[in-house]
């Protein structure tokens, strides 16, 4: 079974996310045993950024900020769709909290909708989401 990094690499809807993970230097971390749950912003999510902002994300001088943003999309443990509970708090790898909203078969993570199905990986699970979830602390500005 492929690991999280390989799952993302095989999905053309997560191309920018893969580039962001590599630019942030998180390949080794997402290849580790885990398990992790990754909420991966889709191409649509990156498309919602202001013109040229994605390029700013990927610049070498923004590596630390980008790592903080990506780590805000990762939680420890493998969380399946049936495990999500309305009002649940999830602690991210960068120490922030994401809040789950679950109702009528839909699941949102801090306002970002889980799209489609999950992708199983040898070291966790990947969900495609429709928004980039910026860390609340520390505030990140480009």
Structural summary, described in words:
It is a single chain. The protein is of the alpha+beta class and 142 residues long. It has six helices and seven strands. α2 packs across α6.
Please sum up the structure shown:
The chain has helices spanning 4-9, 15-24, 27-31, 43-47, 53-57, 63-71, and strands at 36-41, 74-76, 89-91, 97-103, 106-109, 112-121, 124-129.
Which secondary structure elements does this structure contain, and how are they paired or packed?
Elements: H1 4-9, H2 15-24, H3 27-31, E1 36-41, H4 43-47, H5 53-57, H6 63-71, E2 74-76, E3 89-91, E4 97-103, E5 106-109, E6 112-121, E7 124-129
Parallel strand pairs: 1-7
Antiparallel strand pairs: 1-2, 3-4, 4-5, 5-6, 6-7
Helix pairs in contact: 2-6
